[in-house]
Design goal:
This protein has 466 residues and is α+β, with helices and mostly antiparallel strands. The protein has 20 helices and six strands. A four-stranded antiparallel beta sheet has the order 4-1-5-6. A two-stranded antiparallel ribbon has the order 2-3. The longest helix has 33 residues. The protein is flat. 23% of the residues are buried.
Amino acid sequence: MEVVSPRAANGHAASPSLSSVISPDAILQHLVHVLEVTLGASVEDLERPGSLLSSPRKHDTLQRCRRFASEAQVALYVSKDFVDFEKENKEVNGKDRGFCQNPPCRYTVAPDISFSAASVALIKRPQPINPLVPLAAQIQVINLPGLATLNATASNEGRPVSAFETLHSFIHFALSPYFNAYAKDQESLGASKNRLDTDNKGGVPGTKRKIAELERSLLHLQQNTEIPELHLPLPDVVQDALDTARARNAKPTVDTIPQELLSDSRFLNDVQNMVNLWIKSIQAITKSSRDPERGSAAQEINFWLSLESALEDVEAQLRSDGVQITMEILQRAKRFQATLSFSADTGLKDASEKVQKYNQLMRDFPLDELLAATSLQKVDESLMSVFVHFNRKLRICPYPIARALPLVTAISADLDTRIQSLLREQKVMHLDFISFSALMDQANTIWSTWDENIREFTNVAREVTR
């Protein structure tokens, strides 16, 4: 493996001119150091067949580094993949690899990203790299965990881990604090800027709101209760009939099924067993539930909205030609026990009716406005919207009070979190007295709004329970 001098690796040429271009070897050396730290890459891995430093690939790697350094390309990605080199070559460099506790890896450079075992993104400004400035000051590095990292974390912690959790961490602990810190620094430079003036829909307040919305969306993706996806397998004979009808551009019917099969007890038993499996799969959806005492208000809202979509998908599959033909086969064979009790056994009708009624409350629930509020005034306004919707809908839909009470508790937790987040941004103890008094007045207004709406909610809850 070729190396360059330490000065070149740091982006310092011996006597460069402003118009000179940094050597791609320096970029490559910097890249190697980054991979060693972020992905734990070894020289052996980097030089394996197919990796970026292997003899057939090194020229291409240097070309990509040259384009990244000298052109307006702003990002370069390195993907890490696990490869079973035993199948490709039992011996590497003339030595038997034998047993290896860590599986061999392949590292490849690309101008775009893919979801692999792990990845690293190198980002720069849309201009050539300046050889007079250290590379560390011109290239930002982002470590993007992939399947291997997520699976290892899940194994250690005993719980599933998704990429959504990683992305949420990036936004919550890095991007959002960095943006807020920079915005505050810029705000302190403008004497005419009012600290509490955050009513503008654009600019910094609007961007803060969008970042908060993105953070909230990523949190919801990892918190939502998973509802099983339904796929109803069809008997092979029915699938063949569907394929034949599709090829002939005709409507499939039960008449396309060989008549001798309609009296074949073995075939009919197989069909009935498959229908019984359908019932169990559908019951896994219709009997889905979540504990309202646990989780956030958004989880409760999203659960019922997602369940309605899942039930609509079940109904669509039951209306499909394949399912209709399968049920008609049992009807013609006079297997009425499976067909007549199908709807009752699945519980689909009752579940759909309950979910549709509950979603009179959940649909268009204005919780997002509260979670993304960028000022205490916005918190107060959004809190009022939440309870206006809640109290009005609770009167006309049969959503249980036993679930409504923990939902209000979850909303109070969201309110508390949002207020604390906004107050931390203000650095309350550093405010002058006038700004402090204005801030406290806004906070007290929120508590008054909460008390008034809680009283109204209590009255509504008593009305609907009579």
